[in-house]
Design goal:
Length: 102
């Protein structure tokens, strides 16, 4: 767990928090290694999902038709590529043996 916390701090993914809420950390065994996870099931249950239709493949092809430049993105550590608005970060706080982070 210490290595995971240090790595997330080094990547600027987490920071110390003073949040009034926190979620538990769980270490999950996966393919012989331990994986750092935060149990956000309660937060997810209280979150109102966005609802909008996905574009159809036909509309995507119609948009791309005639275009000359395309790009591709390979997002390493993909889960951490999506930011959380600063005003909402306190909602993602988690507690571990060291301190409270979000």
């Amino acid at each position: 767990m210490d290595a995971a916390i240090k790595q997330l701090l080094d990547w600027d993914v987490i920071e110390p928090s003073a949040s009034p809420v926190s979620f538990p950390v769980v270490m999950v065994r996966q393919q012989g290694n331990w994986r750092f996870c935060v149990d956000y099931r309660k937060l997810n249950a209280d979150t109102v999902p966005d609802r909008y239709p996905l574009p159809t493949i036909d509309s995507i092809f119609q948009t791309l038709c005639g275009k000359k430049v395309f790009s591709s993105l390979d997002a390493i550590r993909g889960y951490h590529q999506l930011g959380v608005k600063e005003d909402d970060r306190w909602k993602t706080a988690f507690i571990c043996h060291k301190e409270l982070f979000h």
